[in-house]
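User: Could you write out the 3D structure of this protein bound to glutamine? I've included everything you need below.
Assistant: Certainly. Input first, then the structure.
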Amino acid sequence: MNNEILKIKVKELKIKICSCEIKSEDVIKVCFGYIKKVEPKVKAFLKLNDDQSLKQAEKVDNKLKSGTKCGLLEGIPIGIKDNIMIKGETMTSASKYLENYVSPYDATVIEKLKDAGVIFVGRTNMDEFAMGGSTETSAYQKTANPWNIERIPGGSSGGSAAAVASGMVPFALGSDTGGSVRQPAGFCGIVGYKPSYGLISRYGTCALASSFDQIGTFAKNVTDAALLTSVIAGKDYRDPICEPNECIDYVNDIDNPNSLKTLKIGVPKQIFDYKVDSEISKYFNDAVNKIKLALGEVVEVDIPAYKYVPALYNVIMCAEVSANIATFDGIRYGYRSTNGINLNDEYTKSRAESLGYEVKKRILFGTHVLEAKNYHRCYHQAQKVRTLLINQIIDAYKKCDFIFSPATLQMPVKFGEMLPQECDIFLIAANLAGLPGITVPCSFTSIGMPMGVHFMGTRFSDVKLFKVARLFEKISEFDINKYPTFDLT
Ligand code: GLN
């Protein structure tokens, strides 16, 4: 059996495994054989579970042979971002602070995946505590973009994106607080989806900014991202923001465009206020023309508050970071300094010795905006402007069903180079407003790198969002069956 097996759509691979046409054990063997070759170049994983995965696969095969019912994702390998808890396994959030932290329980999404029969092949790299857009703030390693290993994969879920894009796993989980699933998906030429706020439980996920955080899915194609979402979405009494939706099948009707008959796509006029990479601009305009020809009407929408997105996001996200990261005090769990001379000094040194620069910077800024003298002028004001932005977006949806934009305004840079702040504003707006968004690959640019586009829907329009993404996938010139090639000699 060769690597091609890893390129079959998950939906089909599952049928082959469940009918015993292919053994899960063989899939996992091929998967690790390929990972061994590619991983030294890409460095997507912080930890790999070779032996455990093989044992799990054997169990799956025996179970199926004995006629037991096949789970929804039986025997399929998956990568999990290292900020989601799997009971008994370490979860580092790519921080030295949690280097030896062992998860005491399963996150809800992990429970659901275990019930579905997936195989957890490893933990994917990320920016420390998901703070960053390049995966360079990881305390452990830098992950490369599989299409060009001198460039960043994006972040903060860069490990998951790179693992899927390079073909090491067919799908993966990430978390998205300010674009961290959809931005790396765009940079790596795959599909990245963030649900409506409250659609997927965050119980057992390491919090970054709680009023934005959501778990999201990565896959090579829209259908597989929808399939994974069907398994992990739905109510959970342990996450208070999780809405009591019935479990929905996001795949069932995905190829039936009837409900999208009178599709109206809104393009924010604000896109052109920014410096957009010339090729991204060109391919985005081509995509708009294709939509006009094949999918529906395109209208211009006006959301002037987009210009506040970077400031708003920074103030609110850092304020929430300073509160969430306060639990990392060196006393309850995680890294504890041995250099403290009294209790306060021990708190200080535990944090100072184990947290990275980006994390410290955000704690300081968040604490600053929450200080009594700044609270009204900064934090409270930001919350008011957030409401203004949400109202303008709601108004825009009176004219259209989805808001369409490039996923990012720039291409992935080389390691050490900085992206401009406004690069991800069309993604971050979805977090600020609690809306679902999906990145779909669009074209290849002249530097041999992919670029993606982004659809944002109204709250809980996720079923329709997958449909429009699937329609776009069909008319896009991007070949989803193409994978980056590596010099494996
Ligand atoms: N780039 C954003 C940040 O650094 C993304 C964070 C995220 O979505 N986890 O805050």
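Residues 372-396 form the longest helix (25 residues).
User: Perfect, thank you.
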